[in-house]
Amino acid sequence: MVNTLNKPEVEQLRDGVKMPAKETILTPRFYTTDFEEMAKMDLSVNEVELRALIAEFHADYNQKHFVRNEKFDGSWENLDGETRKIFIEFLERSCTAEFSGFLLYKELGRRLKDKNPLLAECFNLMSRDEARHAGFLNKAMSDFGLSLDLGFLTKNHKYTFFKPKFIFYATYLSEKIGYWRYITIYRHLEAHPEDCIYPIFTFFENWCQDENRHGDFFDAMLRSQPQFVNNLKSRLWCRFFLLSVFATMYLNDIQRAAFYKSIGLDAREYDKFVITKTNETAGRIFPVILDVDRPDFYGRLEVCIKNNEKLRAIDATNAPAPIKFLKKLPAYLSNAVQFISLYLMKPIRVDHLHGVVR
Length: 358
Hints:
This protein is mainly alpha-helical.
């Protein structure tokens, strides 16, 4: 049943089709890469593990999982206007992120088909999973009288170019943090079913296993290219991507704390748990991880949250653009100082034979 009551006031491309969210530094990104460099990669160092992962992908454990059941037949007037608005935003961001993964993996599968068939097969199978996720999320949005035009997104979204090694760092972390996000929400709602405001959350246990398998694929790819994880340059880049992913999630989620409150979670505690678990997981392949237990790690992120609140308040005024920029400048500079300071914090070295070395 489509809920047509109390539709949130949102900008629409056409009736029932939501205008994509404005792109910002914190919104999900669409990526492209150097396909020729990817095609030339020698996978022989870790080919056995990659073929085992392909067999797991072919098993397709979730083939019949993403099927809507009778729980979706209800209407959702129990969600107040603000909760509904925030929840639709959650569905949109999640759908956009999954769809961006589908587009990247599908294009890699197409471009590598004749040049690196093993890698192409992996990407094609992962694109299948991402397409299911995006479609399921988009269908969920339709329960609230809205959906995304994924074809429009394909043609009109900006694409960010990343070298293959950066694709591996970013997507590995994206898939692993996705696993910890989904499983943490699932376990909380399993223990507190009264907080489950919509049935999509009951699918998260199996869903997160797709994320985990995809993360395992990028782990295997990094192991097949040891030059990406065994030198000073790789340590610097791993620190950068860990910080970027963690900071982006934290700043986004605290801004949307009302959503997590609606499902019985404290956004800060939830994010800290997910960051800790993802950081630990990254230590299985990354040469360094972040020292997220330092009090000033989150202290500096909290400064950024306050700065972002100031930036939004300035945007809400009617001041001329040049005046707004001048008013924003101290907050921009402060954010830059916080991120540089976070990046320069001493990381934790990981010895993959003997464990963590501080």
